[in-house]
Amino acid sequence: MKKNIAIIMGGYSSEAEISLQSGNIVFKHLDKEKYNAFRIHILRKKWVYVDEEDREHPINMEDFSTTVNGYKVRFDFIFNAIHGHPGEDGTILAYFDLLGLKHSSASFYQMAVAFNKRDCLSLLKPYGVNTASSVYLNKGDEIDFVSVIEKVGLPCFVKPNRAGSSFGISKVYREEELTPALNKAFLEDDEILIEAFLDGIEVSVGVLAYQGDIRVLPITEIVSENDFFDYDAKYLGKSKEITPARISETQKRKVSEVAKKIYSSMRLKGLSRADFIFIGDEPYFIELNMVPGLSSESIIPKQAREAGISLTELFESCIDLN
Question: Are residues 37 and 176 both part of a single domain?
């Protein structure tokens, strides 16, 4: 009997539309001979199953089921395609754990730490992972701009601590630009990370559990047409994403080892994408994406194709019904 797979998509953050694109890609490529796939929209105003004729069927939040033509449908597995809150930060995964429903992501705690940039950096530093100098701020904190600049230098990046797809990020060149950059970031989150600018080759490394092993996908080099790898560069074609990356064998070995160490030491699961910048031959970790984009313009699907892994195989690798 075919298993029912709920593909959750949408979410409550600025990344909702991107998540819907990712979820629909999963729905399109999931093997319908093996699974009954259901598109589940998780939105602030409604949780609904959207059928192939775009009719909406409400989700019963008591047991995460739906009713179609008088028949109750329960799900055997949840494929998490929600970027941001409440999918990528682990919030909804705690709910699934309480219901005893298996899902494609790591545990809610690991997901929460990975999504929280400053907690993730703090966790990985003791493992010898190189990171940029940084300053943490909360909304309402007194800010000593001189001390901040002394620590991170200029230019620097101002980032929301818990957001993705480069929403709310600014590259700051002068002290007077810090205040508008902070205001922009605070629109996305009440916690901020100010990070030193690292000038080097930027790469993105996909890592996943595949056929019983932790596998590092072919590495992608990021060459942005804009000042940094912002939203337009990621989604509107304002960058070159070169796979495999034009890096040395030493750089490839080092960044692959670090990416694999991050995946295993944090006890991650499913798909992940870690971003790094090289200073010489040394990779410096930037951030971790635990629900990476899966649209046609996204990095992980391109890396999988380079590795000879179809999207059907890639998505099936995330489904563990045992």
Answer: no
Residue where a domain terminates, one of 174, 196, 218: 196
Contacts of 136 (CB under 8 A, 6+ apart): 118, 161, 191, 192, 193, 194
In a domain, 322, yes or no: no
Q: What amino acid occupies position 254?
A: K
Which domain covers residue 228, as residue numbers? 112-129+200-316
For residues 39 and 9, is the Cβ–Cβ distance under 8 A?
yes
DSSP one-letter code for 131: B
Instruction: Confirm if 10 and 82 have CB atoms less than 8 A apart.
Output: yes
Per-residue pLDDT tens over the stretch 255-296: 999 999 999 999 999 999 999 999 999 999 999 999 999 977
Nearest to 195 by CA among 251, 226, 138, 149: 149
CA angle 23, 27, 31 (to 5 degrees): 145
Q: Are residues 185 and 205 located together in one domain of the fold?
A: no
Confidence of residue 233 (pLDDT cuts 50, 70, 90): very low
Q: In sequence order, what are the beta bridge partners of 256?
A: none
* 204 and 188 housed in the same domain: no
Q: What is the CATH number of the domain that holds 158?
A: 3.30.1490.20
pLDDT-based confidence at 166, cuts 50/70/90? low
Q: Do 90 and 122 lie in a common domain?
A: no
Give the residue from 4, 283, 305, 309 showing the smallest Cα distance to 128.
283
Q: Which CATH number goes with the domain that contains 308?
A: 3.30.470.20
Closest CA to 208 of 303, 84, 312, 285: 303
Report d(CA 118, CA 214) in Å as an integer: 25
Residue 8 has pLDDT above 50, yes or no: yes
| Residues 155, 196 contacting (CB under 8 angstroms) | no
87-140 per-position pLDDT tens digit: 999 999 999 999 999 999 999 999 999 999 889 998 998 899 999 999 999 988
- Is the whole model's pTM more than 0.85, yes or no? yes
Is 119 found in the same domain as 166? no
Rounded distance between C-alpha atoms, residue 149 and residue 173, angstroms: 10
